[in-house]
Amino acid sequence: MRTALRRLAATTLTALALTVPLGIPISVAAAPTTTPAPTPQRGQSQQFVSLSIDTVTPSTVTTSSPPVVTVTGTVTNVGDRTVHDVQVRLQRAPAVASADRLRTVLRADQGQFDVAGEFAVVRDRLDVGQSSRFTVALPVRSTDQPSLGINEPGVYPLLVNVNGTPDYGGPARLDDARFLLPVLGLPRDPSGTDPEAAPIPPSTADPVAVTMMWPLADRPRLAAGIPGSADERVRLVDDDLATSLASGGRLEQLVAAAEFATADDLDRDHRLAQSMCLAVDPDLLVTVSNMTHGYLVVDNAADPTGPARPGTGQAAAVDWLTRLRQLASRMCITAVPFAQTDLTALQQAADPTLTTRALEKPADIVDGLLGVTSLRGVTWPDSGVLEPTAAATLTGLGPTALLAANAVDGVTTQPKVPLEGGNNGGPLYAALFDVPAATALAAVGSTPQTPTFTPSGARYELSDDSRTARLQDALGAMTWTALTSRSTGSRMADANPRSLLLAPPQQWSADGDEARAVLSTVATMLRSGLATVRTLPDLVERPAAPPPLALDYPDQAVKDGAPPSVTAGVAVQAPEVDALTQTLVYDPQSALTPDGFTAPLSEDLLRAMSTSGRHDADRAPATAAAEQRVGQVGAALDRVYASVTVLAPGGAYTLASEQSPLLFVARNDLPIGITVRLQLSAPPGMTITDIGDQQLPARGSRALQVPAKVTDTGKMVVDVALTTSNGHELGESTSVSVRSNSYGKVLVIITAGAGALLLLLAGRRLWHRFRGQPDPADEGYEGR
């Protein structure tokens, strides 16, 4: 089942012979035969066969289900030699008695599965690479024949064990597969006729109030570094979302499962619909909404502005969004943080705009694109945990409920508790979800995950389990609280009121069958009386006055969070985006606003801090993509600033007078207006007047006339640059040659001297006239 156990089994399989306490007939694909237990042998140290579970019927036992549990599976020879006498048997352990055992029992020693059937041959010979299917069937209970011996409701661990004899070795235990079987009630014992053979329903004296989150999220798909536009098609890094939205795709199946399970003919009293709440990532909605208008897919994600091809998912996006609108119109819906942003990284980036876009804007996006009024005052981080100082990111949101798992050292206690160090805008409360159930639900699907909040003792390699086994584990974990009395339950079950918040991972990879099985189990709990409805609005209402509890941030959260290199890059780029927004011009006649132009860049920074892909064993691809996204935002800012420039004039200016103005042309290639300042470096002999802030129209140019005064003649050089109103350089600076025909001080001196001489001559003439004397200057002209 799991690598570690397989290796342990391989090294000790010939040293241990499994004792069969009771011979129990089972049915297998081949004719069943009885064989003795394996004989101890030594010397084998590798895995020879792999066992997987294909189906479990019924997946949940109820009073009306078949009285026989049937398991089908496959045994595959994965070793380097033939295996003979391949045999399987079914075993059962006691009912799970504590919440932590829901995971650890799946790693327990085989000896704890002490109710066992006898071995039956699946195949006499299994060659290398060969597979063989088998079927095992045992009654739930029986008074006159061997059975699983289940006599009361509960969650029971089951194990399918495979033995065989490899070439050059002896009989040995070669592999096993384990899973949980939820028993919500016992069906009639067909072998008995007395009252004890009647169906046994579960106790409904103390039902659990259940709330089910239904997440719809995806990893970031929009190409980075593309500012907003009123008419251009968006670009995606790939076209995988088209497949996910189309019929049979992951996101389509999640919506279809919710549609089916909450339909009027199936959910007649609407109790399942009331207990559910859609949790939608606004980044997904933004992407899908843009896809409905047509979109492009870039050939290379590292070159977002490079060659691109038309996307194929426009029709699928239209259909999916229409169906989601219809579903959301009759159900609770809330928004999760934008792009599954790491809230710890968000707090470290310390940018108010990013905080608003991550935590406040999502609800507006959901309401606007789906035409609903979403539930406000709820914050559900993708990691399921919140670092204490990161609670500051919720400042100003008002009374806020945090859906998390890490209050009080990660131990689930009361369903709603106030936290120490609430925000300034209102108290912060935690609605704690069930950790074992959330851990098991995260393992369901094509891409199993181990959540950040899962305790270290419950973490193991999930890929060794089949999808069917992982689904069974989830169904068992979901129902355990309802089937367990308070006296033997967890601390959460001891709380009052008795509550169960079920939270799959936000980017859940369950398919349609798995999703329907999960919802069917919740519906069965509600119908049977094991559970009652608790809506999410009711769950997150402020409690009276429970004692404050602290947040405990696990070490795993640091590994699963945005890396420091990304957070540092975001902290650098976010103020640059804010500064650009402030310098853009709002035009009521234009569909493109300053916020609309820069919003994609801010959102790219949030996408860079996404925890999507951070739960994988190899986080390197997620880290590389995040670092690339931050870099592309920086490159986009450079392109924006390079799109606004002052045009260098040809030749040189010639000033006709000492106060002739300088004329420049500024060009704006952006689809939105921008406020600029002309920066001129005047040489000695020239004084230039600052003309202040100037607005350039979208995709246009404007002549800028600058008053200048020169006091020298000759050729001068003026350095010219264009900046934003807050000082960021635009385009490239240039230099302008200016020729002045003004004589400056020389002209003033000559003019002053000539004037003085003129006054002197005029005064002398008047002096001679007053005295009646001829002016010597007139000599020779008297007779003329």
Distinctive features:
19 helices, elongated, 29% helix, 784 residues, single chain, TIM Barrel, alpha/beta, five-stranded antiparallel sheet, Immunoglobulin-like
Task: Return the domain count.
Answer: 5
The beta-strand count equals: 30
- Helix/strand class: alpha/beta
* CA-based shape: elongated
Sheet having the most strands: 5 strands, antiparallel
Number of helices: 19
Kindly report the CATH topology of the largest domain.
Answer: TIM Barrel
Strand content: 15-25%
Radius of gyration based on Cα positions: 39 Å
Q: How confident overall, as mean pLDDT? A: 85
The share of residues in helices is 25-40%
Cα distance spanning the termini: 136 Å
Q: Assign the CATH architecture of the largest domain.
A: Alpha-Beta Barrel
- What's the CATH class label of the largest domain? Alpha Beta
The name of the CATH superfamily of the largest domain reads: Glycoside hydrolase/deacetylase
Low-confidence stretches: 1-44, 408-415, 488-495
Organism: Rhodococcus olei
Keywords: Membrane, Signal, Transmembrane, Transmembrane helix
Protein name: Glycoprotein
